[in-house]
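Need fresh eyes. Consider my entry:
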Amino acid sequence: MRTALMVLLTLTISLNSIARGQSIDSDALEFQVQQLRAELADLRSRVDGSGGVLTAGFESETCTTGVVGCGETGGPCSPVIRIGSGQSKWTLGFEFVFARPRLLESFDTIVADFATNTQTLVPLDYDYDLAPRISLGYSGTNGTGVRARYWSYDGESAPTSLVAGPTTRAAATVLTVIFPATLRTPLPGDVLNVSNSLETRTLDLEGTYDVRLGETRLVSSIGLRYAELDQRKQANVVSGGAVVQSLDWTRRFHGLGIVTGVDARRPFKDTGLAFVFRSRAALLHSDKSVHRSVIGDVTPPANATLPIIALDDTKESSAVGEVGLGLEYSRQLERANVFARGMYEGQIWTGIGTPALGFLGFEGFSAGFGIEY
């Protein structure tokens, strides 16, 4: 544009000089005419090569649909924020999560050694168990969509059998609201058996919004979560081949609340690999029930409470946080994009509790695959 203005200005000056009758040197006039011809030829070639769009001083390109911002002034126009992918698609994913619970200051049994005057708290021994997760989602051309995710964990701690010695005794205890219950081997040779189990299920129904910041893809989500959690502890004491004490404790939780999250994906150039990050937070409002039945309770003072305690449908709230970090490999096929993903993950549930009251956490690894069509 600046060159065009210079050409018009020179031509205007020359014409005004002729109109006023001013003399113009023939050599100088010839030089100006040749310069004008060169400038016009350059302008014509630039217009023809740009498809009818004049580019002067900087290159220009048309921003695509959904672009919110462009590059700096004087530079090429480049997308900064892009909404959606420009086409609708379905996404189906399967993940094999290997998770184990982590329980705050909770223990399985107690071993008392009267020779050393010490009590050893033996922690719960949960191993990694397979906890499958499946997700199905749809995203429209404008970036908005819907998604459903289901996750389930069902695990048991390693069963415990402890034999009382000449100077040692084994015990198992639970706390139901404010009422403890304890079993203890009374004589050497008596056996304490203990088992623990935990089941968890979550179902998320969310609305999603797909945004791209340069090469980074962000999918934000908000919706509803339904969750269930069942815990159980069973113990007994066998003396002389007969069961002389027993304990059965359960906690059941089911709630509904709001869940929100962000999934991020950042590719590594053209390698097919990408860094992936996932975070979620939920606030659940729940109904919780706790039941306990005990025979032979030795909690001091012995038999201070009735053997059966029931707390049904109490209203409570719990916060849940989740985070995951990993790598993904994807490949574009003829009409679909397939991907495989591996992540390290963690969760924490507040206010859920364990047999000794506390926080419940999960940590583990996931390996999954999926398809976008």
